[in-house]
Specification:
The protein has 103 residues and is mostly helical. It has one domain. The protein starts with a helix and ends with a helix.
């Protein structure tokens, strides 16, 4: 869905089902990178992260404008697998989203 929203804009504007969309932005790439003793690896990761953040923001904007009924959450400093790095926050958001659904 994300790539279609980015490329085609209007294609998925009428999504009748409720949607919870969770983004990690800016991403955490984990301690294996952040604590890496090699300064060239840390420098390369900073360049990668700097490029990834605006791309993720563009994806967030595409969802918000292309699927206005979607509930979009952004978790800063989560890793790509937000359900692992931020389990408690994801569960909290899922429970709140599910509790708000009509019966």
């Amino acid at each position: 869905m994300l790539m279609s929203l980015l490329k085609h804009g209007e294609k998925y504007t009428n999504i009748p089902a409720p949607a919870l969309v969770i983004f990690a932005n800016p991403h955490s790439l984990g301690t294996w990178v952040e604590d890496n003793p090699d300064p060239s690896i840390r420098a390369d990761v900073k360049v990668y992260s700097a490029a990834l953040t605006p791309l993720t923001e563009k994806q967030e904007e595409a969802v918000q404008s292309g699927a206005p009924r979607a509930h979009v959450i952004t978790l800063p400093n989560a890793n790509h697998h937000v359900f692992l790095s931020n389990e408690a926050e994801v569960l909290k958001e899922m429970r709140a989203f599910l509790a708000g659904l009509p019966e």
